[in-house]
């Protein structure tokens, strides 16, 4: 019985001592900087355009006499739809 326990402990020690030969690091894979910069530029442009369109559409809806809550919600939805279609066309023109 004790020999089985000793064997098991010895096997556990041997497993602990085994060295894994997987590399500790990876080679640097250069990103396509032009594509990354373009995506970053498009992201910030989308945020800016969305906020400007939301304010302008909300102003128009409020001047038409629509209640504030509905004007704000409609302006958010319209701005999101316009922004999505605009970004779709930008990416389709790039490819």
From TrEMBL:
Domain of life: Bacteria
Keyword set, alphabetical order: Membrane, Transmembrane, Transmembrane helix
Record-annotated membrane-spanning stretches: 41-64, 70-91
InterPro entries xref list: DUF3270
Protein name in the entry: DUF3270 family protein
């Amino acid at each position: 019985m004790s020999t089985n326990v000793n064997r098991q402990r010895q096997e556990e020690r041997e497993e602990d001592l085994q060295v894994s030969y997987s590399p500790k690091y990876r080679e640097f894979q250069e990103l396509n900087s032009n594509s990354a910069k373009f995506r970053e530029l498009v992201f910030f442009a989308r945020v800016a355009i969305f906020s400007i369109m939301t304010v302008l559409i909300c102003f128009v809806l409020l001047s038409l006499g629509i209640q504030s809550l509905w004007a704000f919600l409609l302006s958010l939805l319209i701005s999101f739809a316009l922004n999505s279609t605009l970004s779709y066309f930008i990416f389709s023109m790039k490819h």
